[in-house]
Structures are given as C-alpha cells and as structure tokens.
C-alpha cells in the first residue's frame, strides 16, 4: 500500500480538542490536508473527537491510536451531500464520517474506534418504539420502496472510485447506516477490523459494491443487517452503470449476528468469481445468503464457498430470488414532481433484457451447522427459491451436515447435486419463516 510514511501530523497540533463536546472536524481536516502534501500520517491520539464528515487524500495514513474515538455528529448538516451510490442507485447522499473519494494509496489503521451514534439515526428512522419514526409515513402511503433512500443517514466509512486501500485493526460501532462501503474500487484489503453493536435499520457491516480485487479477512462482525454484502447496482440504474463485483475473497471472519455473508440484493451489474472460506457463524440469522428481486436482472456465477462452521444459525442457506417484495415493488406513481433520485430508484431494466437474475455455477462444500440444546429460534436448513423460467443452475453441495428443525424449500433449481449431505429436520416447514427479514 505504498511507501512507509515518515512525516507524522498529530491532530492536537492543529487544535483538535478531543473532549467529545466540541466539533473537531476542521482541526482534523487541516491535519489531513497537510499530511497530503507530505504523504504523511495523521495521528488521532487518545480522546473522544466529535466530528462531521472528514475527507482523506491520496497517499495518507490515518491512525487511530488505542483509546482514540471519532464520534459522528448527530447534526445532518455536518455531513455535506456527495455524489456516490446508495443501495445500488447513484445519487447525492450525506457524506460518511470518513470519506475516501477518488483517492489512491490510503490506509486507515490503529486500534481506535469510529462511533456513528447510531441510536439517534435509528430513532429518526424507526421511532423509539420502532413504529413511529419517519418510516411510518412511507408505509402508510405504500412507499416502502423509496423510504431507505429518502430517510438519509450517515455511513461510517465510504470508499468511492479509489484504489490501493488498506483498512485494518479499527473498530466500527453503531453506524447510522452502512458501516463500511466500497464502491467502484479496486485493490482493497480489509483486515482484523471489528464491527459491533449495530442494531438499527440498514446497519450493514461491509458492502462491496461494483468493486474488484477485494480481500476481507480476519474480521469480527455483529450487525443489524447483512454483515458482509456483495452488490453491483439496483435495477435500471445498476444496469445502466454496468459494473460487476468480481475477484473477491472473504475468509477467516466470525459472524456474531445479522444476516451473514450475502450476495445481493442489488446484483444488476453482475457478481462473479467470489471465494468465501474458513468462516465461523454464531447466532446469526443467516449463513451464506443470496437475494434478489423479480425485476433486478444480473448474473451471479462462479462462486466457491467452503469450510464454514455454523452454530445456532436460523437459515444456513437462504437463496431467494424474490426477496422482500414490499421493499422491491415500485408502485406506479406520478414522479414528475419528485426528486431525481426517486426516478433513479424507480428505473427499470430496459424491455427485451432479462429481468430475472441468473444464478449458476455455485459450489458449497465442507459445512457444518449445529444447534445447541437451549436453542429456541427457527432453523431452516435450505431456502433455495428461484423461478421456473429462470432456475438456478449447476449448484453443488458437498460434505454438508446440518442440524435443523425444518428442511425448507428447493424450488426453481436445475442440475442440483447433493454429495454427502446430511440434514436433520424435526418438523414440517413453518409458514411464518417465509416472512423472515421482510421488515
């Protein structure tokens, strides 16, 4: 990731206070700007630094020392809007706490923490009772499909159109929205980071979005949504951009909660050549997951998954090509007076192009999924559901042992091979489990 940086810029020398009360954005940004001139390192010493959006520059290292904490402001005005991509759609959106926009050779490291003050943003979205926030209006007006784009919240780290990026050792907690987003980015390593205490809406851990040559390893993740998600654009807007996610390796991570390792749901630009291996899942909702929607298009292919250990996982394999219809169904409304991003979200794949996602050439092997004696939640071994006119194809499960309560579904699959697969199923499928993650 570039030469060793020699010049060090301590943010205290630029009048950063670090008391958690005074806004330190300008002081820290000055240190970053000076470090860019010298290709140096910005040091965040022990302390609590209240900040809005910070913008890293090329050839800069940002080091959060032990007991250093960046706390994101709860004032949305401290996060100026920047053009990027949000949940598969290009649009203006509040900048993240840390932003890497069109930069090269940047490192974020150290053993400090970035805290998004998520409960503030989660309450704005859901309400304190998870029923009375801004989201309620969209539900009442049959506009679930636009709610997540219109209720804007800061991410913790955004990497956009950048290359040769290293992010290691830091802790991310309570993000307002996604924790770490990698979009249109190449040659990225994410190693030994911890993502925890994310109980809010859309608090994904790591999102790899239309990016290539990405290696994620030795991380610990506990999220309220997908812990690691691979994406490539939503519907018409994703088709227009047409950038795939490829050459991704994910290994030696531990998933503690959330929806596991996911491909989707935004896959319109294609996802291929992915290897996921040597992973541990404990008490998570899902293990290896794929999800898409009827009008999303895209191709998911050449995926290798092996050496997974799961304990108390509700859905070890959840592959749903018609996932969460309420979120994905864009109701016909008059958009002429709506913001541009409403039209971008509503855009469909052109007529004549395939709108059903193709899933093919998937190999899963060496997986164990066990349940402890005190486990009380559902446990569905397989939930593989595609369409008769676009079935998943060439799917192989080898050396799989699953302790489940119900077998689940296998629908719309062609050339499925089971080799040394053992499943325990104690009762019939429970229809209530068909609605999992449809909130």
UniProtKB/TrEMBL annotation:
Classification via PANTHER family: PECTIN LYASE-RELATED, PLASMIN AND FIBRONECTIN-BINDING PROTEIN A
SMART domains linked to this entry: PbH1
GO biological process: carbohydrate metabolic process
InterPro entries: GH28_Enzymes, Glyco_hydro_28, PbH1, Pectin_lyas_fold, Pectin_lyase_fold/virulence
Keywords of the record: Glycosidase, Hydrolase
Source organism (scientific name): Agrilactobacillus composti DSM 18527 = JCM 14202
UniProt record similarity statement: Belongs to the glycosyl hydrolase 28 family.
The name this protein goes by in its record: Polygalacturonase
Domain of life: Bacteria
GO molecular function: polygalacturonase activity
Keyword Zinc: no
Pfam families linked: Glyco_hydro_28
